[in-house]
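thread: overnight batch results

M.L. [08:02]
morning all. the overnight job finished for the chain we discussed friday. pasting input first so we're all looking at the same thing
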Amino acid sequence: METTITTWEEHGKTFEKVASGVREYIKEEQLKIDAIVPIYRGAGFLATYLAYQLSVLRILPVQYKYFFPKKGIAELHELLFTPSKEILGDSPTLVLVEGDYCYGNTSIQACKDLKEKFPKCKIIFATDLADYTYKNAVKEYVETMVVGRYTNHCEELSEEECKKLNIQPISHAIWEQEDEEEAIPKCEQYKYTDLQEVQKNSKKKFEMEF
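M.L. [08:03]
and the structure it wrote out:
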């Protein structure tokens, strides 16, 4: 399928939809948000927008990244984890924010790590984009899931199914590097400027074969 580049205006409309959904949920459930937790790097823009729209000061990021050390192997590493009981107490209500959710493995790992740190926490999951086929992957870990729009980024739907479901073609965000986004689905290691240092100093969460 053809790949398109989404504009700032399109992202703005999607962000507004997500903010409205989160705002409606916390009002209905009478919840107070203790922190916005973006999964960096992808969720940075949406998380900042939500922090402003929901009048929340604390932004406490987590960061995970897939590395491809050799052919056929993918490793998910934790690069950063800032939420702590010293800041949030034992049972915080968190808005976990993802950017362009695909299979959901990174989001699930973030949920598990937050639940391990805060067994009594409540997680509201918010994402600008979510692959339709895997839209329920994180459902068992969160109170609710707010999605801006659905995609076929995992390419498991036919063009006919996409039209029927009104799902847009594969897209890249305007801030993303096209060559990086093309490398990831191919499971090829993109050459980040700080790759070796970050990989060495990060924590491997799991490994999978493909």
